Predict the structure of AB hydrolase-1 domain-containing protein.
Amino acid sequence: MGICADDGQRLWAVERGAGAPVVCCHGGPGLWDMFEDVTLPGRVIRWDQRGCGRSAPGGPYSLARTVDDLDAVRRAFGLERMALFGHSWGAQVALRYALDHPERVTELVYVSGVGLGGSWHAEFLENFLARLGADRPRWEELRTRERTPDEDRELAVLQWTTDFADTSRAREHAEGMATPWFEVNYECNAAIAAEEPRVWREPELVAECRALTVPVLLVDGAADIRPRRAVDSLAAALPSVDRVVLPGVGHVPWLEAPREFYAAVSGFLTRTT
């Protein structure tokens, strides 16, 4: 389904199932919806963010613009209120939307987000390079030169292998995430990363989160290379929060622990509906 944002930009979206609506926000920035294999209860709506995946090319790109596009998805599907399911960068988008429009959100499922501050970056990079291991020379080569489309996919797969704790299946999972393949929107990624210090400031966010009455479920993989301590201040600030930490699981918990992940998420959504 093609829908239009308030500035006329076309966004790709799809729905399946019936019942209470759950709108998904994918990771990135600059990537696309990879939730085809995620099982959620209810009427599940997925979409590709502006300029990414199956949505029309072109910006502008910002956190505020992404939040406005999410509201366009809500309106296009005729929803007064909805649950939000966000993964990684998408968890940040979903949280920002809930803070801006709490009256439109029934529940928030925040999966593998990076919390309220930016202090996690240095530790993440150290963990990322360590988990790359023998793939680091090839990754270094690819990232520092012009690439063919096939090499661009190879670079993404190498990076995504670090998102999995089980190294014996990491390449398999990463290849699955890259199939089907859409070009990474590096312009989008750079624009949103550049604004982070200005728009994502922990002291202000803590104060906003303390006033949020929407029920929130935090789901973490204990072996995520993004340090989970970065989410501690978010968990402490939210007045209505549950937190599930899955042992031996990385950044994409529905692939490494599907039964445990579904039990946590479905239990939360059906309990609070």
